[in-house]
Amino acid sequence: MSEGGSVISVNVSTRKGTAKRPVEQALIDGSGIVGDAHAGPWHRQVSILGADGIGRFNAEEGRTFAPGDFAENLTLGGIRTDEVAVLDRFRIGTVELEVSQIGKTCHGADCTVSQLVGRCVMPTEGLFCRVLSGGTVRPGDSVAYLPRRLTFGIITLSDRAFAGQYPDRSGPKVRELLAAFLEGKRWHPEFTSALLPDDAERLHAELIAAVSAGTDVVFTTGGTGVGPRDITPETVEKICDKLIPGIMENIRVTFGSEKPNALLSRGVAGIAGTTQIYALPGSVRAVTEYMGEILKTLEHVLFMIHGLDVHG
Questions:
Q1: In which order are the strands placed within the sheet that holds 269-272?
Q2: 275-280/217-221 β-pairing
Q3: CA distance 149 to 179
Q4: What is the pTM of this model?
Q5: How far apart are CA 248 and CA 252, in angstroms?
Q6: Could you count the other beta carbons within 10 Å of the beta carbon of residue 73?
Q7: Looking at the chain, which runs of residues are DSSP E strands?
Q8: Which phi and psi angles does 303 have, rounded to 5°?
Q9: Nearest one of 148, 34, 38, 137 to 93, comparing CA atoms
Q10: Which tens digits make up the pLDDT trace of 5-16?
Q11: Residue whose C-alpha is closest to residue 74's, from 100, 92, 93
């Protein structure tokens, strides 16, 4: 899926915190726009602002600010930049940019627009990108907007649910909680679900397929206890490159203080390739408790996996 737009203006400046001046063309290399103050070995190499955002701001303030006045490198038209998510991409000829941050702290006293009207549009609508491939950009160039799907896999492990003895409730609960968490955010989510018996080989194959497909986050439910058919943690750990023990340790301590049986859960969290994997217990109540804690750091883990310093 892609959406077309165009470059309205290409803008550069030699000092940070100042308005940028339009130029006829600019060369983008691995550091950003050559000669621009914001180029460098970091995640905010090229800044973008939508022309529609500038138009709304002008209408609200009763002023006429031009492209570059907000210190953006590229002013784009025809694309709803207020719907763009982190890790989405823009392609302009040979140039490909990946969105690494949305909004930023205003320069305040050093921001020309803020000095004039007391606020700026960049802190809420500005997009910041890192360069994936370079080239020359000019006003009038076509822009392809390439949204990135944030993919979730939900796997329920239950012999009895698989046999049809009762419906799967924990998997749908995970999806419900994810949908509520993602509501109002810019991500473009996509979900897949699977129901398996408590079988290590089948779970291993399902997880390998999810990792190979580049699934962003996988949740398993069930099989985290100490019974003879509880095989989920061992299976998950075998394919993880890194474990994140603190997440599950915190959950066990948080809920185990009131319900000692919660300490028997062997839920694990880890990373396989670029896929987050969380093994949760199978009860709806436990899923709700675990998800409430996991979702606090899920986006930050995603950023870290993709090398984004969101505090920069």
A1: 188-196, 149-157, 217-221, 275-280, 269-272, 242-243
A2: parallel
A3: 14
A4: 0.91
A5: 6
A6: 27
A7: 3-12, 21-23, 26-29, 32-33, 46-50, 74-77, 89-92, 95-102, 127-133, 135-137, 142-146, 149-157, 188-196, 217-221, 242-243, 269-272, 275-280
A8: -60, -45
A9: 137
A10: 999 999 999 988
A11: 92
